[in-house]
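Why show two proteins at once? Because comparison is the fastest way to build intuition. When a single record is shown, students tend to memorize it. When two are placed side by side, the eye starts asking what differs. So, the first record is below.
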Amino acid sequence: MSDSAMVKECLFEAAGLKKEYDEGRVQALRGVNFRINPGEFVAIIGPSGCGKTTLLQMLGALDRPSSGELQFRGKSIKDQSDAAAYRAHEVGFIFQAFHL
């Protein structure tokens, strides 16, 4: 794949991503926007309770956003009809609490 083709292809893209709990009283994510391209290394950092795990769970199709758009290779993750297949073939996930 040429360098110009790699720049155009996007692995993950989020636009206005929000996650609310308790009928909107708790906002785990508030309008998150980002783009991750092939070959990029990304670190998700922040204080405890800022939404890092919530975001990772959405990227792994384990949770859905309250609003906004989240895509993997141009396809919506929140509309994944087969989330298990997506996780098995597209992403790897190691659980924070060692769920088995």
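Second record. Ask yourself what differs from the first in the token line.
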Amino acid sequence: MIPDIGALRCFEAFAGFSDEELAEIIALCQEESYAEGDILAVEGEPAEKLFLILEGKVSLEKS
């Protein structure tokens, strides 16, 4: 499910963005699915992606 402008507005980080800016962000989005136990990022390593969790759960663990 690619987010729509309404979905992005639910994220406080996007509160100051215009509809046009949000549309540009949406154009760059791609849907990805992960299995339970998959590691999306590791503390201390540069992030390769920005994850917007639209469905399901994520667990944050400090290493």
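One difference worth noting in the second protein: The chain is about 25% helix and 0% strand.
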